[in-house]
Design goal:
single chain, 28 strands, mainly beta, Jelly Rolls, seven-stranded mixed beta sheet, 381 residues, 3% helix
Length: 381
Amino acid sequence: MVYYVKRGMVPEQRHTYDDRDHIQKEELFGLNAFDGRYSLLYHKFDPAEVESTGVEYREKLSPVDLMEHRHLRTGELGKLDNFYTGRQILFFNNSTSTGIIDTDANTDEYFRNALCDEVFFVQSGSGAIQSPFGILKFRAGDFIYIPKGTTYRAIMNERSFFFFTISTDHIDIPRSYINKYGQLKEGMPYYSRDIQIPEFVEPEDNRGVFRVRVDYGQYYLNLIRNYPVFDLEGYDGYLYPFSINIDKFAPIVGKLHMPPPVHTVFESDHFMIGAFLPRLFDFHERSIPVPYYHNNIDSDELIFYSSGNFMSRKGIGEKSITMHVHGIIHGPQPGVVEKSIGAEKTDEVAIMVESYKWLLPTEKAESIKDKNYQYSWKSGK
């Protein structure tokens, strides 16, 4: 849970009005019916108003049902469509999908994911997410969180590259990071003041034609409104888009190698998102800095490599993705353990999705895979 925010003009008490001549349109923007995290939004115009609707069916994803460790070079996909329809899904299951966006395109269309919370890691570029909550600027190194049901517009200042994870599972700050009062605990990798929220702006009041693309998974519902989307006069609550930049993180280190959960940024019921960042290595006099071999018996481990020297992997570059699947042992490649001894720190930046429900590759992923990667543990490779 993030902290309470109040912006703009809201009534003295909820479900009331302050001025009979100016009654705001109150909207409960909330999760889990009336029991989850929520904000109360106060619109200038009717938020349910729709002039017309249409359905646009999406191409069905085709999975490749073959269990093997994979290495994808995502940079080979090249520049794609806009932030909404240019999402290249590389791995997915029945609740979660992950992949990349590489675009410099802008569109006047608005977007809303009706089913999924969305998390984007900004590999490069800059721009802003504009929503009724205001303007959330982004830059390289940002994690952007957008809760399901948020109507927004993505603005690219330049060509920008994103690694994304979206899920019908609610994505949140890890429960272990939160004390019983809802605060982020001391000793966690980030703190409340590191969380950036949108800059609230004055509501729009220009009527016209406003197109909203609503993502329902198998299809888009295309809405046309006459009233502006960004018409909030105020809001308060705990549910809104926000971002955290990796520059603000304080990685946890230890005397011996620390397992991936200490690098968690977000979690859900069926996966976690973590960040491996520049940090000092273990300080035991005989420590082995690189990860030990492990068998993902119950999970799939996907890693997006952002920058730096990836000590445990050979042949990996920026924008690479590796997928180490359940049931097959993996770990450092030949010679890596010996080479790592004595190293004091790492400069790597890598984003991990540890999925407790198996992820299947798409045909798009299969088209850019390194066909020899599963043999990279063979001596001499």
